[in-house]
Amino acid sequence: MKNRYGIKALDFRKIKTYPIKERKNKVKINDFACLKEGFDGLIPDILKGNELKEIVNSVVHARKKKKPVIFAIGAHVIKCGISLIIIDLMKRGIVTAIAMNGAGAIHDYEIAMIGETSEDVAVEIKKGRFGMVEETGALMNSAMKRFITESVGMGEALGKDIYEKRLKYKEYSILYHGYKLNIPVTIHSAIGTEIIHMHPSADGAVIGRGSFNDFKLFTSLLSDIGKGGCFFNIGSAVILPEVFIKALSIARNMGYKAHDFITVNMDMVQHYRPHVNVVNRPIQGEGKGYTLTGHHEIMLPLLYYLILTRRTKT
């Protein structure tokens, strides 16, 4: 029978169904959160919960194979109060190297110096005082002039300065612990983007040399990442993803087998550059790239706890 549109309605009685036992299902109760298996069991083996567990297993497996686990961190990671968690992972031999942008180094140094950081930019920019606090610029620029050489980069120079000055809150400093533990901490500066570049004491040649030395060191670290290493980009939208993809290209160009490893981008908001330069382009069928979205002050403690839990079980 046709309707007013002149179209004959389909006869739904002819639809074919099949038994539910023949259907393949994506979700099973075995994958559900379990309340009797500790905190680890509370995370279901579904979607991002399953990916988070895969990441944790990859980190534990990487360290068993003595492969690097590298954290590249933006400044907000330090401002969110995560430093002691990262430092403990360094002390335990889980995180084997740190890369920072220049702003991250500034926050870390100020924490070591006064136990506080992060000025109110909206207030200070009105007065022309944003970034102009005397001690941060003077001390950091002085340290770089003093310690950066043809072979010493910015991260080592600032870590050594904190170590030698015995700054009051040094135990909260990633730079300090990198120097103390002999764990590489590289700093990747972009001229004009950091407050210490605004000071009369700034020396572009020294900053450039220190950052370039750290770029070469970072490239060396990536030469061993193949066959099971891990690279995390945490909270850097542009600088560190760009540094990573260039350094990886150099390592491969020089003949190192920097393939078959995992990459993870962790941030509050996902951006284009980390997606293509960290999660997508470096892998291409060899290894796996992951994306985790969430606030650093929640996600990193969660990752930390799961790594320690899984490491204890294996």
3D architecture notes:
There is one protein chain. The chain has one domain (44-313): Deoxyhypusine Synthase, CATH 3.40.910.10. The protein is built from 13 helices and 6 strands. It has a 6-stranded parallel beta sheet with strand order 3-2-1-4-5-6, sandwiched between helices. Helices cover 48% and strands 11% of the residues. Helix 4 (83-91) runs parallel beside helix 9 (174-181) and helix 11 (239-253) runs parallel beside helix 12 (272-280). Strand 4, helix 11 and strand 5 (261-267) form a beta-alpha-beta unit. It has 314 residues and is of the alpha/beta class. The termini are far apart.
Chart the SSEs and their pairings.
Elements: H1 38-41, H2 47-64, E1 69-73, H3 75-79, H4 83-91, E2 97-101, H5 102-114, H6 121-127, H7 134-147, H8 154-165, H9 174-181, E3 185-188, H10 204-222, E4 230-234, H11 239-253, E5 261-267, H12 272-280, E6 287-293, H13 296-313
Parallel strand pairs: 1-2, 1-4, 2-3, 4-5, 5-6
Helix pairs in contact: 2-13, 4-9, 7-8, 8-9, 10-11, 11-12
